[in-house]
Design a protein that fits this description.
With 467 residues, the chain is an alpha+beta fold. It has 13 helices and 16 strands. Helix 2 crosses helix 6.
């Protein structure tokens, strides 16, 4: 009889859990209704982890590892007064739709220790182990006492810290979570909040989704059929860090013909073509890619970039498999770029129709899946809004200590169904440098990390479990 495989010892130990409340009492009795898009995101959770390496990040005194925690707690209480959706509790209104009731119930905070330095962790941990930094409980049957947001302070050896923020995707998207975290760091440094949150939209946007209904209906049908199949597939996650110099070298070969191609267009085309090439051959003649785009800059409201909720548009790019496998990379880059330009027009057009119709609230389903999904996070580098008066929250300007930027920021989505997820994220390095989080079936991931075409771009592996 074969012995069972021993479980790997966890390097993360949770020491305590407490509830943090806002420094100023929240005015009870208020509630905020959720949009159709919010409802659609219900099956998913969102997890963001900010890594700070070394004692200078949060813990100036390495001999007292609690100092960092005690220092950032008061500023957290302050920032919570600006974000009542974070401390609120979910409930169902009289129409059977979700809403957030403003309360002083607070947010759950976990405190944990990690048996590694931040540098060792980024080099040796895999995607599954990283999720221990953002321990999460799914929405229970009775959400009245359930905290829809969680914060986990992970103290590493030699003074490093990773702060994990988790929430139900029903209430926030990656930009929203970054907006909250950046406001927290600015309050901690006693600076003015550069991105004060916009908690709600005018009535004309309520009950609306910027994702076209034909596309979401198709995804809903596909998701139902893929649920059983995807649940039996083991997924793996790794992050690839592409340097600016390598990106500039390769992209220069196509910029003469496609000068407007972005790093997102290039990396999306690269990874999509290689993933299709490495998949098990099928009779399917076409391949589809779902692309998730932030739409805040299109909202006709003051300071649209600081809207704190879901503001995403999902579109679908479908190409012949022969094109993806047999064409030069520059041609696929062109097709991705053309699709993204059409998406911009599509978003503007759909927003213009919001005052004329109202979408029904359909049942939630997996928006990330069942096909391969790619998330565009180019706006998180810190681009200005159309008016130039405010900007999107820039990921690597979230600093508790002046000039001490995060060493890495991970974005993870829970309950990814089907073929996988690609997130093209900002990098702490400047220029065209990007970090790309890839979630694929385990066997495909192993092939991708050894693919000669990918290796030609010399990516540094982070959180891949490979030493």
């Amino acid at each position: 009889m074969m012995s069972a495989t021993p479980l790997k010892k966890s390097r993360v130990t949770v020491d305590s859990m407490l509830t943090i409340v806002s420094s100023v009492p929240i005015q009870s009795g208020q509630s905020t209704g959720l949009t159709a898009l919010d409802h659609a995101m219900l099956p998913h959770s969102l997890h963001v982890i900010f890594y700070y390496e070394g004692s200078s990040s949060l813990n100036p005194n390495v001999d007292d590892p609690s100092l960092g925690f005690d220092k950032i707690r008061p500023s957290l209480c302050e920032v919570l007064t600006m974000f009542p959706l974070v401390t609120g509790r979910l409930a169902v209104d009289e129409d059977g739709k979700w809403e957030v009731r403003w309360t002083d119930a607070g947010v759950r905070m976990l405190r944990a220790r990690v048996e590694a330095t931040v540098e060792e962790w980024l080099a040796t941990a895999d995607g599954e182990e990283e999720m221990e930094l953002v321990k999460w409980e799914d929405l229970p049957d009775d959400p009245s006492i359930w905290s829809p947001f969680r914060i986990q302070i992970n103290e590493f050896q030699r003074g490093g810290v990773a702060i994990g923020l988790s929430c139900t995707h029903l209430l926030a998207d990656p930009t929203s979570v970054t907006l909250f975290f950046k406001a927290w760091t600015e309050i901690h440094r006693r600076q003015a909040i550069s991105n004060p949150p916009l908690l709600d939209l005018p009535d004309l946007y309520q009950n609306q989704s910027t994702t076209n209904t034909k596309f979401t209906s198709k995804k809903s049908d596909e998701s139902k059929g893929a649920e059983k199949e995807s649940s039996s597939v083991t997924m793996a996650t790794a992050t690839l860090s592409f340097s600016s110099s390598v990106m500039e070298h390769h992209s220069s070969q196509i910029h003469d013909k496609f000068p407007n191609a972005t790093a997102f267009d290039f990396l999306t085309a690269l990874l999509w073509t290689r993933i299709v090439h490495l998949k098990v051959p099928t009779d399917r003649k076409k391949e589809s890619l779902s692309i998730c785009t932030d739409i805040r800059k299109h909202l006709d409201v003051p300071s649209p970039c600081v809207y704190f909720r879901n503001a995403l548009h999902f579109s679908q790019l479908m190409l012949d498999r022969d094109v993806l496998e047999g064409s030069e990379l520059r041609y696929v880059v062109e097709l991705v770029q053309h699709h993204m330009s059409k998406v911009e027009e599509e978003i503007s057009s759909s927003l213009g129709c919001f005052t004329k119709r109202k979408n029904k609230y359909g049942p939630p389903f997996a928006m990330y899946g069942p096909g391969l999904t790619c998330v565009n996070m180019e706006h998180m580098i810190g681009t200005a809004s159309p008016e130039g008066t405010t900007s999107y929250p820039s990921v690597y300007t979230a600093m508790f200590v002046e000039d001490v930027k995060p060493d890495h920021v991970s974005y993870r989505v829970g309950n990814v169904a089907g073929e996988g997820l690609i997130l093209v994220m900002p990098s702490p390095d400047e220029g065209l440098a990007r970090r790309v989080s890839v979630t694929l079936p385990e066997e495909q991931m192993a092939k991708l990390l050894e693919d000669e075409v990918i290796l030609n771009f010399q990516p540094k592996l982070i959180l891949s479990g490979r030493r």
